[in-house]
Design a protein that fits this description.
Elements: E1 5-8, E2 13-20, E3 23-26, E4 30-31, E5 33-35, E6 44-45, H1 46-51, E7 60-62, H2 77-83, E8 87-89, E9 100-105, E10 108-113, H3 114-132, E11 143-149, H4 155-167, E12 170-177, H5 178-193, H6 197-200, E13 216-224, E14 229-239, E15 242-253, H7 258-276, H8 283-286, H9 295-319, E16 323-332, E17 335-342, H10 343-349, H11 351-367, E18 378-382, H12 389-398, E19 402-404, H13 410-422, E20 427-428, E21 431-437, E22 443-447, E23 453-457, E24 465-472, E25 481-488, E26 494-503, E27 514-521, E28 527-533, E29 550-552, E30 565-571, H14 578-591
Parallel strand pairs: 1-11, 11-12, 13-18, 15-21, 18-19
Antiparallel strand pairs: 1-2, 2-3, 2-4, 5-6, 5-7, 8-9, 9-10, 13-14, 14-15, 16-17, 20-21, 22-23, 22-25, 24-27, 24-29, 25-26, 26-30, 27-28, 28-30
Helix pairs in contact: 3-4, 3-14, 4-14, 5-13, 7-9
């Protein structure tokens, strides 16, 4: 099948589009909700699932992007788990393991991994695409696609998206960063209409005139959606009548979005309710035991309150002043919840979120080697959360011209454009399949045997990226070597990627043989490793206090010419074998 779709996998809503010869067909947005009823085998999706969430909260799963690729010990996960009405828990005492979703309906219970939940949702998107985009083909056909994700998605999240898509019957041609997708759409749209998009879309201040050629721009993409913040500096340049999109830097936060604003308002209301009703603690709702008697009614109240908090947030974003009265009748034990939230209070509880956004912008500008915000030619603001008053003021104070894309289809159109290019359309309005040059989102480092970490691949390295690392055995006759691999973003928080286990090492003396470990990050931002016996004595091994890696942004730049013995590498966290994926794909197909 030569028709490839683009998917914008959003925390709040998801979208599907196709680009045929430069003409887009975009389907209506689909709420990222999935609900279970009856025997738990035939879920509801999208609007159907969202409309019944207040009556069926324990079996309605939403904000899928905040679930995927996460572990119990990951930053912010425990707090999020406390505010979701559905049950999301770790099935074992090992907090490195991925939690599961437990849904219960009429005495029935069933557990799903986050990958399985996303796979079911993607399978529904696939079904809709086959029906509504005039693609044709049987329901069991494998459909090619490009899926956009937040640029701050880590290895585990990207790998989980890929696994879920395979289980759903998709063949992913590319996992594309949302910021890159938006700029691709900008480049295509600008060329088609032959105009400055600031004249077509809303802008807050006049864009100052610059002595810069129209064929080169530094664009900052600020994407603040329901679940995450992604910021990128992308240089758009026209060279030999072909547009080039070069990502210079990116930053963001996978725990900063509209959901976090909703959570702040919700906790504010719970605290106010507890102040008035001394016999009630906010922990009654935030530490909800979903298996206790009355859990459903508590979860129903929490769902109704969340809806009111979202309404208040939207009202403040559109009006920018005044008070909002948040009311939920019979919230707890027939007691009504009534909370008046002033605009000043709203600004105060979201102030630190705006500060985090500014920090990400400043870091992005610094990493791109730009002098200051005045070096940015345009800002593309994406996501409903950019309408928050604090965010509006932040962008207006830092930059001169802000492009607001109409509606919310910029990302999915960019994904559909990339899908069309990868499917064989070499040029779409001066954009070629190789026009995008993306970069890594994280530093990749390994933990040394004598302590400390060594960075192998730096953040903002051009993709695909590779680094070789020479390590020696640390004991006599050693046949297995294990080491821990980490990611680190611009916020300097470490994320444990996995335990790499090198097996089948030929027995030898201390530090011999020497193993060449190769780390590769592909175009999707997914890390993999290989290892080979180097058959020579290195100057450095993993046990040395000051090892020197040999990084490269060009794949294969350090391929060894010596004959070697290939060692097997097992990566233990967040990985599915091809057999696992096929079994789950068939199981999910049967469930639909």
């Amino acid at each position: 099948m030569d028709q490839v779709i683009g998917i914008d996998l959003g925390t709040t809503d998801s979208r599907v589009a196709i680009c045929r010869n430069g003409v887009f067909q975009v389907l209506p947005s689909i709420p990222s909700f999935i609900a279970f009823r009856g025997d738990l085998s035939e879920p509801l999706f999208g609007d159907e699932a969202k409309l019944q969430v207040s009556m069926n909260p324990l079996c309605t799963v939403f904000q899928i992007n905040r679930l995927i690729g996460k572990r119990s010990l990951d930053f912010g996960v425990k707090q999020e788990m406390s505010l979701w009405p559905f049950r999301f828990y770790s099935p074992t005492l090992d907090e490195n393991e991925e939690p599961v979703v437990d849904v219960q309906y009429d005495g029935k219970s069933k557990t799903f991994s986050a990958v399985a939940i996303l796979s079911l949702f993607l399978r529904n998107l696939r079904k809709i695409a086959l029906q509504d985009l005039s693609i044709g083909g049987e329901q069991d056909v494998v459909l090619d696609c490009v899926i956009s994700v937040p640029s701050v998605f880590n290895d585990s999240q990207r790998r989980s998206v890929r696994n879920a898509a395979k289980q759903a019957g998709f063949n992913i041609l590319r996992i594309l960063n949302e910021t890159s997708a938006a700029v691709i759409h900008y480049g295509v749209r600008k060329g088609v209409e032959q105009l400055d998009l600031n004249k077509s879309y809303e802008h807050h201040q006049q864009v100052e005139k610059r002595q810069k050629m129209d064929d080169e721009e530094n664009i900052l993409v600020f994407d603040l959606g329901g679940g995450s913040l992604s910021v990128a500096i992308i240089r758009v340049k026209e060279d030999d009548n072909v547009k080039k999109f070069q990502v210079k830097s990116q930053a963001g936060d996978s725990h900063l979005g509209g959901k976090d604003v909703d959570d702040r308002i919700l906790l504010h209301c719970l605290n106010k309710f507890a102040e008035i009703n001394k016999d009630v603690s906010p922990r009654t709702f935030t530490n909800l035991d979903r298996q206790q008697d009355g859990a459903k009614y508590l979860a129903m109240s929490l769902s109704r309150l969340r809806f009111e908090c979202e309404r208040a947030k939207t009202a403040f974003s559109s009006r920018g002043h005044g008070d909002e009265i948040i009311q939920v009748s019979s919230f707890h034990n027939t007691k009504n919840l009534v909370c008046t939230l002033s605009f000043d209070e709203f600004q105060n509880i979201t102030k630190d979120l705006c500060t985090k956004c500014k920090m990400a912008i400043v870091q992005c500008i610094t990493d791109a080697n730009l002098k200051d915000p005045s070096s940015v030619d345009k800002v593309i603001a994406l996501g409903r959360s950019t309408e928050l008053p604090g965010i509006k003021n932040l962008l207006e104070s830092m930059f001169s011209g802000i492009i607001k894309f109409p509606g919310t289809n910029a990302v999915v159109r960019g994904a559909a454009t990339q899908a069309s290019l990868l499917s064989g359309q070499d040029v779409i309005n001066k954009v070629r399949r190789d026009s995008l040059m993306d970069v890594t989102s994280f530093d990749v480092s390994i933990e040394l045997h004598l302590g400390g970490k060594q960075t192998l691949i730096r953040r903002n390295t051009k993709l695909p990226a590779q680094a070789d690392y020479i390590l020696g055995t640390t004991s006599e006759q050693q046949v297995i070597s294990t080491f821990r691999v980490y990611e680190q973003g611009w916020d300097e928080l470490d994320n444990f990627v996995g335990l790499f286990k090198v097996e089948d090492i030929p027995p030898g003396t201390y530090r011999t043989p020497n193993i060449t470990a190769k780390f590769k990050i592909d175009q999707d931002g997914i890390l993999d490793g290989t290892a080979m016996d180097a058959h020579h004595t290195p100057d450095i091994c993993a046990g040395d206090p000051q090892p020197v890696p040999r990084p490269s942004s060009e794949p294969g730049a350090y391929n060894s010419t010596y004959p070697g013995y290939e060692c097997s590498v097992m990566i233990y966290k967040g990985r599915f074998s091809s057999d696992d994926i096929e079994v789950l794909r068939q199981r999910n197909g049967a469930a639909m």
